[in-house]
Amino acid sequence: MAPREYGQYCGITRALELVGERWALLIVRDLLVGPRRYGELAAGLPRIPTNVLAARLKELQEAGILRRAPRSRVIVYELTPYGHELEPVVLALGAWGFKALDDPRDEQIVTPDSITMSLRTAFRPQVAAELPSTVYGARLGPDELLIRVAGPTLDVARESGPADLAFATGPGIHRLISGELAPDRAIATGVVEVLRGRGDLLDRFASTFHLAA
Amino acid sequence: MAPREYGQYCGITRALELVGERWALLIVRDLLVGPRRYGELAAGLPRIPTNVLAARLKELQEAGILRRAPRSRVIVYELTPYGHELEPVVLALGAWGFKALDDPRDEQIVTPDSITMSLRTAFRPQVAAELPSTVYGARLGPDELLIRVAGPTLDVARESGPADLAFATGPGIHRLISGELAPDRAIATGVVEVLRGRGDLLDRFASTFHLAA
DNA sequence: CCGCATCCCATGTGATACTG
DNA sequence: CAGTATCACATGGGATGCGG
Fold first, then answer.
1. Which residues of A touch B12 (CB under 8 A)?
2. Which nucleotide is nearest to B23 if distance is taken from CA to C1'?
3. For residue range A46-102, what is the model confidence (pLDDT) as tens digits?
4. Same topology for domains A11-85 and A101-208, yes or no?
5. Domain B11-85 annotated CATH 2.40.50.40
6. Straight-line distance from CA A53 to C1' D8, in Å?
7. Among candidates A93, A95, A98, which has minimal Cα distance to B89?
8. Contact criterion met (CB < 8 Å) for A1 and B111
9. Which class is domain B101-208?
10. pTM above threshold 0.85
11. Which of A9, B17, B68, B154 is within CB 3.0–4.6 Å of B104 for a Cys-Cys bond?
12. Which segments constitute the HTH hxlR-type domain (chains A, B) (predicted)?
């Protein structure tokens, strides 16, 4: 038997053999947002050694989870349909781990892809369906996200554009999503800085994206 | 920063820091079935080095996922409420990995706890609710499981007792659950051996426990 | 025996340098 | 830009020891 196998005939062990290695599910997390080039993956996972990234990509490809796809002269990595089926796993992990987040430390970064998956985790379709469609523009450091909520559907794109509410924030937004911090307090304390639009729309945001701690 | 941390402020990375180490989620898998002693965990994970088991138990305890509980002179490990919240993660992983199972190899074992969690993964409450309550007795090598399906609820216990259908089987049962093998074919080919009761109840079993490949 | 702790070695990981 | 090569080190795997 291969030394890194668990020796059990079981779905969970099989899953862990395929995506249980260090960094593997984080690569999947970023690819769930969209196809990514090697350098984009490396940028979204700043602490991954480049040889490990290369090794994981090879393993995940051999496992049928992702594929290298040539896109007009450059190569992108994209999930296969089977790889995409990991989304429930990643969302469940994210929801569980969210509750174990303590206050952010300085060296902890927030990447656009990680925020995007966090928003997908915290998104409450049934609540959103009852609210008017809304576009939020979020600036996180140098990155901008356009968060479109239309009925029960969510779309998060890495672009800028017109928004009903544009705000700048950082890791502290997790306290807004957890309900630990009320929207008006978030604005008052500077955790969220309103750039354009009606600040009271942050109430709607907090209702739409919520994950109890 | 601790060297084994990912350096991101994100629920998924946090989750992987807590339960992403090798063997950790398999320990959780077995504890989801019930409290277990050190030796029981070691027996259910025959390939885990004993020092790694001890290390994981310590880490999972510090993370608030499990606790050591004295039970009448012996110590058992049991999940905390927060640890129990990993069940959706484990079930999602199991459902995904189930589809990647190929034919079992000789050295791959099936443990009572892994089978129990597989049954929980494959259980279809809405289908079961439409069927009469049924008790199945499954013998897997030396182990016996009593599988009680009552309405939309499932209970799997490691004991023997009266059953509407008692059968012996092995890893090949996964082909029954995946639908790859019809119930009558499973009996005909010896994948499932009926010990007592009406063999046609295996149809009901296959309807109740199903996970498409 | 059960519940670990210790030792040793193979392997995986991390940091850095390097190449097509 | 997209990886490969190299090397130090941490972790995992396997055997064994050992106290209660």
1. 25-26, 29, 90, 93-94, 97, 114, 117-118
2. D12
3. 999 999 999 999 999 999 999 999 998 899 999 999 999 999 999 999 999 999 999
4. no
5. no
6. 19
7. A93
8. no
9. alpha beta
10. yes
11. A9
12. 10-105
